[in-house]
Amino acid sequence: MADPLLTVTSQTAPGAKRREEPLRGHGQKDRASSDPQQSLQEAVSLLGSDDWELKEKGLFSIQHLAGSHSEVLLCRLREVCLALTSEVTNLRSKVSYSAIVTLGELFVTLKKDMDSEVDEVARVLLQMVSNSPEFVRKAASQTLGIMVENVTPARAMTALMDMGVNSRPAPVRQCAAQLLLSLMQRIGVTKLAGTAWAERLAHVAGKLAQDCHKDTRHYGQEMVKMLLTHQQFKMLLEQSLSPRDLEDILTRIKKEGMANQKAEGPSVKEPVKERNDGSKKPQATLSSSKRWIFDYFVLRLSDSHKKVKQRALDVLAEITGALKDALNPVIIGLVEGITKNLNSKDARVRGAAVKALEESIAHLDQVSLLKEFSYQWNHLSGQALLDVTERITVVQRDALPVLWSFLENKALPVRSANVRTVATKLASALYKVMGTQLKKCAASKPAHVRENLSKMLGW
Length: 459
Hints:
The chain is mainly α. The chain contains 25 helices and no strands.
């Protein structure tokens, strides 16, 4: 199932042959410049030109310098990388491709000296993995692999978790998931368990293992299998996932493993044939069909056409009450689809998202659902932030950090009156559940947080 385009290697990307120059990724040993400082200055000036051919000349010059005078690039590394990332998104695909190739050369040559540039470069390259010409997409995928192979693993892993895992386009999530898995395999589960982001990694693995995209889900499941071999990660997974979610992941890992031994993938006609033959296990058949259908249905919740998006949300609201807990295996994709439409400027799309949200709250497993809403809260703004906050008070463990964030004035821009109303409702609900324990929890918070809480609850 591994996509050869994303394999972590410094070899040439297959198919990336549209340009005359190869995507080498080995660090070029070019003829040394007699005045490398002057050559770099000229290259940077060429990148600022409006003539795309001059830009290409500047990019090739930087590639040459990377192989022969890397120390010169180090002196102006930030400036050079900003210029390169700007050209990665150039509308002329030939320039974009050359800029991506050049970044690969810098990673190979400068290695960990590129650590400071990982976040910005990863963000831009992941953006190019989706909605780009095929040869540009392949180049971006390979350069990301070169980056992962050469920089400090912790920097690469953090960047992928920050910018790849939660991305809306499925190809970006798939790319990030495969690279994360390769990093985990290289670092080893024992070393990973001793890192500060072990808990987050467990959450990410569980999330990817339930992704609506088949290949992304495969890489997530491989991550989960790896983490389960270590006792600490096993505990973190059990804390991050509900027992039902973890059991579902393990069941699907086992089923997909058996399926892979028999064939490349299940036939679409098999579930229908089983039902028509009067199988004694219709529920298993429906579950298999449901997963296949929702791999495509969830994507429609983010469709670029408003009418398609609205209709998908309407259908989701209609079927949630009928399917109920049977939707738990796809709950992550559904929550993402709903929350991303709560701020829609189209009143009909927003209305459909609100209805889907209400139906989900009414019929789905609340612990799993609200845990995922709490995770999404950190990525929300505007009315969506308020809509979700009002619905997570049931789960004390997840709702309490949200309350502190409101009281610390970290809520994203919305009308202040609305924020106060929702925050007060949240504080009151938690006080009703926790009583004086809420005061004890607040005691360790800054003075302004305690003061805001006291005003809200009339202490």
